Amino acid sequence: MNLKSKIAVILFVIYGVILTYLYTAPFSIENAGHNADKVVHFGIFALGSVLYLFLVKSGIGKGLCVFFGTVLLSIPFGLETIQGYLSYRAYDNFDLLANYVGIAVPLFVYFSCWILKRFRWFSWFLFPVYTTFAIYVQLNDVFSKLFTEKIAVVFDIALFFSVGLLFFHTFTIKNKVLSGFFVLFLVVFPQVLKYMNPSFGTSKLLLAYLSFLTARLFYDYLKKPRIQKEPEVSQKKDF
């Protein structure tokens, strides 16, 4: 096991210990806001999923990958069940759902990126599906209904950013005319949402454009060629 694998395992174990403490400690965040505890559950297990991906990429071997993967999938149900037996905590099916959604999202993003990198045509399928989902979410104010205002803003930013990033991956082409036509979509898209949904205010409109701009800058950064330093060759001088 190399150093990177050892660090990954240690981080995952520390994560498990902290997670167990948070689940069994006598405190609650249910009063933090509307469904704020669900967001915390989502975030904690999304972090666990990211750590698992780090484990897999560190090269620990298939056996350990299966073991830690089984642990990651078992922890949400196990800890939530334990909470049901604690007098100061309670079992909640929606918390359990938030846990598994948190695990699933990073894995979905990772494998989607893996597929998009190898099969460019897949983005032509994924983009309209994901954009339809984004339209539904915005027209029905899903985030605002589920969460507090501040949390909803964070999810809105993530949604617009991901739409923009997927858009640039799908439609970035060398032809300036066609490229300009596709970019026009990003200009019109938020305006259409504002027209169709009165609650889609000017602030959210600006938020969408800023998210698209950030997505473009991030996409350009990802596509920027990396300059690899050539190893220095020591030359011995003969005297």
TrEMBL record:
It comes from the Bacteria. The keyword Membrane applies. The chain crosses the membrane at residues 7-27, 39-56, 63-85, 97-116, 121-139, 151-170, 177-193, 205-222. Keywords: Membrane, Transmembrane, Transmembrane helix. This is Uncharacterized protein. It comes from Kosmotoga olearia (strain ATCC BAA-1733 / DSM 21960 / TBF 19.5.1). The lineage of its organism: Bacteria, Thermotogati, Thermotogota, Thermotogae, Kosmotogales.
